[in-house]
DNA sequence: CCCTTTTCACCTAGGTGGTAAGAT
DNA sequence: ATCTTACCACCTAGGTGAAAAGGG
């Protein structure tokens, strides 16, 4: 499924006439597997779900194939990338290790850090030699998240129902 | 609206590593304006519509702005263009002279010839000088058509209902 | 009379969380 | 008990011709 909210960036400082590739990948935040805690068993599922928090459940599962998502407009000129916010709304996540749709493969119940990479398309013939200096990586720690197959927290569910247009069918109240 | 059927081409002979832009435009086939003929007035509209044919109605209206439609994947490498059929399914036509959606503007009741252009993206600094030799134009006369705002022939209507997936709601019979 | 515009029901295509069943 | 899968109703977004209304 899509990642929501979508990762978006505003870019400055590119060479307007040069070509760039924009891409994202995801690295594990730690070597842990998480699980839900049910702090108040007799109360029933509802309360526990609301107040849920993450507990370490052990060591991480084997790492998934480290796939990469190229922004579909790549390659494009710096001027094109800079003139508006770049949105990675086509990026999709899956837990299916055998996925053949090119989606990003993650382990459920593990924490991930999205990364954003800018690659300068070097016009020189021996451009491979300069690969090291032709890309830059940006990490925004506030975008870290725990991958799940089903929501573990009602506030996350409500936040998504409130803000994702495709979940409009589940809204109770005001249509702002 | 979209042009249907979609203009599609299979490309051979490009340099797999070079960049190309693919685009289309539309030129008038002649300097005429057409109109419907109603060959059998007392019979009512139904029969006349079925057997309709085009009559010259006079000289063409003033030419519309000669817009161009770039294939949205442009620019891309020759290898990319050649590995599958290229489909211009995002191309849209309009009769609105004030259109600001970048659609191709045509005069209704006029005949047009679609043209397909391949532009080699010349990496040389003085590439403008070679513009003349860096593109090639292809014309398929079987793609000529008369632009209309409403269908003038039931067989065209039925052909489109039968073959355009979005018109499935109007099909009477077999769902092949 | 002939053509154009507007609106509409009905599609395609695909993104939501809910829910029940399945797996461990 | 906890997590995953499969399916679903309900959305967004937008491409169809029909039909009625509008224009010259």
TrEMBL record, chains A, B:
Pfam families: T-box (PF00907). The keyword Cell division does not apply. GO terms for cellular component: chromatin; nucleus. GO terms for biological process: anatomical structure morphogenesis; cell fate specification; positive regulation of DNA-templated transcription. GO terms for molecular function: DNA-binding transcription factor activity, RNA polymerase II-specific; RNA polymerase II cis-regulatory region sequence-specific DNA binding. Residues 1-172 form the T-box domain. It comes from the Eukaryota. Its main location: nucleus. Keywords: Developmental protein, DNA-binding, Nucleus, Transcription, Transcription regulation. It is found in: Nucleus. This is TBX1 factor.
